Amino acid sequence: MHYDELLRRMEAGMSNQVPAGGGHQKDAFTIARLPPHVREANRSLYEPTVVSIGPYHMSSASTLAMKAHKWDMLRDFLRRGDPDGKVDLLAACIKAVRAMEPRARRCYGQIPALGGDDLVELLVLDGCFILQFLLEWKESCTRCTIQGSSIYVYYDLLLVENQMPLFVLAKLFSLVIGSTAAAAEDSDVDQQLLQLIFGFFSLREPLWQVTAPPPAGPQFTQAYHLLHLQYQRIVMTPEHRRLRPLRRLGTSLYSIPTGIASFIRRPVTGTMTPLAIPCVTALQEEFGVTFKEKLSPASQFDVTFRRGTMEIPRLVINGGTRILLANLFALEQTKDCWNEGTMTGYLVLMNALVNTGADVAVLQRHGIMDNMLSNEEEAAAFFNQLGGSALFDPRKHRYAQLFKDTNEHCNSRWNRYMAVLKRDHLKTPCSIINLLVAAILLFISVMSAGYLICRYKHACT
């Protein structure tokens, strides 16, 4: 092939992949397409049930029935801004979104096989559907045509592949609702829209009892989409506000170089400290680790290990929790924060702690987990599947220091001996009584032997 022809073909290929003038670099690939092996293994966690948003699942058989409702919702939403039909709001929306089309196309990890007009129609239709659905939910509209499926729509809007750019939603909202605080730039998001979205999300908080913060701060107005908003709200903001305690608090005993403290601290020789940690049952029975529910956590991820006690905030695990956790994890894995991400680290920790249903049962007994799934094995399989597929650096993830402290505790001979004593001799009242009786008999035997020796010496003299 001639050099000039090859050059033209490669230049044409590059221009077809990235639209010219397609917005800021930060917009590129903010709505990712998951790898096929991840999606195929967990279709129920990543694919929409009743409504598709954006181009990835627009042809899904389960979402085709909702398309007719989308047109009804579009009509009802436009009537909010123009009840008398005097202003052509539809034309204004199409014009505004058409100007954003190159930037919106750039947001998708796989360039949709759609023409410019097709993508604009999809964005306008889906965007107006979302906004009308949120407004009807807020108003408790009894004539909402999808009221029976609203809970499914709730979780469909939180799927990592079922998103649309937030700046498109913000523009449609400002055009139709006409807020006085409407954004001057496309990248800004009206606080009224944020209040609407967060009010919708707060109706079902499936993860924890830690109160989510109000929608204030630049991290919310610069979010990519609805799932990213939820990530900023319940993951990043509590983490930023969390007071980072001294991880080595209460270890002054270990700094004593001689005596019993030196024996306690001395690790097993000839071994290297592992990067993983044992599961819950092994930590409890073989190394004497105590598990407690953290009563006043700064966030769901505020897990600490001090002096042989691991404190973990309570987690309610049900169908909704599985969907939200899986998609927040998938969002983090597709971004630059995958290595030290909070959600990635949390699932790595839970995967390490939970191997079987017996581990889940221990966490339930200590009030750390409320398992609403069919059985403990299903909960264990969920954490194993997600945590086992995580991409992370074992030396730098969110809980790397906690792993190190736990392994140092496990490598202590004293801790192992005490764990064996508790497991074999102090586990039940009967075993405690037997141990006490044995100790008393041993004491009596020693005293008797001493008495006989003293008497014998006295007789000899």
Verbal overview:
This protein has 461 residues and is mainly alpha-helical. The protein folds into three domains: 3-234, no CATH class; 265-418, no CATH class; 428-460. Helix content is 55%, strand content 4%. The protein contains 20 helices and five strands. It has helices at residues 3-17, 36-41, 43-46, 67-81, 89-107, 116-139, 150-156, 166-177, 191-201, 218-221, 226-241, 259-265, 280-286, 319-333, 342-353, 357-365, 376-388, 400-410, 413-425, 429-460, and strands at residues 290-293, 304-306, 309-312, 315-317, 369-371. A three-stranded mixed sheet has the order 1-3-2, covered by helices on one side. Strand 2 (304-306) and strand 3 (309-312) form a beta hairpin. The longest helix has 32 residues, at 429-460. It starts with a helix and ends with a helix.
Task: Summarize this structure briefly.
This protein has 461 residues and is mostly helical. Helix content is 55%, strand content 4%.
The figure for the number of domains is 3
Low-confidence stretches: 180-187, 243-270
Terminal CA distance reads 118 Å
Number of helices: 20
Q: Which characteristics define this entry?
A:
single chain, 461 residues, mainly alpha, 3 domains, 3-stranded mixed sheet, two-stranded parallel sheet, 20 helices, 5 strands
